[in-house]
Amino acid sequence: MKLEWNLDFPVNSGLLSLMQTAADQTLLTEGIPFPCCASVRICDDKAIRLLNREFRGMDSATDVLSFPSVAWPEGVTAGKQPSRLKQEYDEMMDACFLGDIVISLDHVKAQAAEYGHSEARESAYLLVHSLCHLMGYDHVKEADQKMMRVQEEAVLSAIGISRDDSPAVSDETMLMLAREAMKRSYSPYSRYPVGAALHAKDGRIFTGCNIENASLGATICAERTAMVKAVSEGAREFDVIAIATGDTPGWPCGICRQFMSEFSPDIRVLVTWGEGAHVEESTLQKILPHQFELKG
Ligand code: THU
């Protein structure tokens, strides 16, 4: 990701390089396969206050301001509609322009002291938050806020940092992500959509849906889609999988149970159906006793 720096004063290079890493990971986690760019201005409270007054009618300093180049429709983020982002191609930068970010270093310092972590870590957090805004995330409605927090946490944990006070991801959030994933199901043959959300012990979350095939046999279940995505991104250990289905409970099939036991024989399994009206919980150990093992 190309960041066009606009520094009002000299800024520590360690801080800038962590921000660059965070920006690269934000694109990766969102799944944007082409180069993007954004401008990042680092200023003080006085300058951000002027901008906050001019553009948002708020006469106060703040930590970060985001000005997206795309007016994303509600519920759509860049990863879901990369074609919209492609329209922002900037020839000079040879990348798609996401928008402008302004960060106040005065706020970075104060918040880093408050959370007891480094200024680099706080700036990386603010940059990820702002880039998520540029990609269509927002935190006006509670459900959207949860999605945005999950996305931010996924990025931060992938680069080995996290806000010290960050809450563990709740079962409720995992169930919501599974229901969201179910909407992406490709199931024209069975008309039985399934969604899954898998929580890796390193904090990342991977979602999946069932993807059917005209041959029927080549169909991939939602649980395995999520796990294949996770393992191929380097995650190996998992603690929870949430599975969402339509009107009837969708406990994992035998192949998925065996598949999951390869990596996490003790994973918790949550199932939800009826648009969230029903939730049940078990463990893989309980639903797959005596899994197959190749003994040497
Ligand atoms: N399916 C899953 O996604 N997970 C399971 O554990 C069982 C079945 C999908 C596969 C197929 O697309 C549809 O449900 C009906 O079998």
What does this protein structure show overall?
With 296 residues, the chain is α/β, with parallel strands linked by helices. It folds into two domains: 2-158, 3-Layer(aba) Sandwich (Collagenase (Catalytic Domain)), CATH 3.40.390; 171-287, Cytidine Deaminase, domain 2, CATH 3.40.140.10. Helices cover 39% and strands 21% of the residues. It has helices at residues 13-30, 45-56, 82-86, 105-115, 119-134, 142-158, 171-182, 222-232, 254-261, 284-287, and strands at residues 2-7, 36-43, 64-68, 89-90, 95-104, 195-200, 205-209, 238-244, 268-273, 278-283. The strands form two sheets. Strands 1, 2, 3, 4 and 5 form a five-stranded mixed β-sheet that branches. A five-stranded mixed β-sheet has the order 7-6-8-9-10. Helix 9 links the parallel strand 8 and strand 9 (268-273). Helix 1 runs parallel beside helix 5, helix 1 crosses helix 6 (142-158) and helix 5 packs across helix 6 (142-158). The chain is elongated. It starts with a strand and ends in a 9-residue tail after the last helix. The relative contact order is 0.10. The structure holds tetrahydrodeoxyuridine. Tetrahydrodeoxyuridine binds at residues 187, 190, 192, 194, 210, 212, 219, 221-223, 252-253, 256.
Q: Descriptors for this entry?
A:
Cytidine Deaminase, domain 2, elongated, 10 strands, single chain, alpha/beta, five-stranded mixed sheet, Collagenase (Catalytic Domain), 2 domains, 296 residues, binds tetrahydrodeoxyuridine
